Amino acid sequence: MNCPMFVDYVRECMDFITMVKEINTTLYCASEQYQNCPFYKSIKKIGCVCEMVSVCPMYKNLSIRDFDRFKEICRNYCLSDNNVNCVRYKMRKSGNTPPPDLMPDGGML
Predict the structure, then answer these.
(1) Dihedral angle of Cα 61, 96, 50, 56, to the nearest 10 degrees
(2) For a Cys staple, 104 with which of 39, 71, 77, 109, CB 3.0–4.6 Å?
(3) Which DSSP letter does residue 102 get?
(4) pTM (predicted TM-score)
(5) In terms of residue numbers, what domain contains 35?
């Protein structure tokens, strides 16, 4: 079973989350694994979803080979109740703009 957002080999989820077009998720899109895809979970509001996930520019710095790293970041911060401990989230909430290459744990990409 394919992801319902994978229509005619086009990832319609990219209309919602526009900043990561380079990351290849087709292994997820074309299988039952789509339910574990961070994009799918975010769009369908499955579990805890950080309010900043759809606008966070950090994802722009990830490349095609970084999908596993992206999934880990999402699991540990963006799509968990730990999102409030994300350094980027804290900076945004305090009115500051985090650097694009700042990771949720405070490290640099």
Answers:
(1) -20
(2) 77
(3) B
(4) 0.68
(5) 6-93
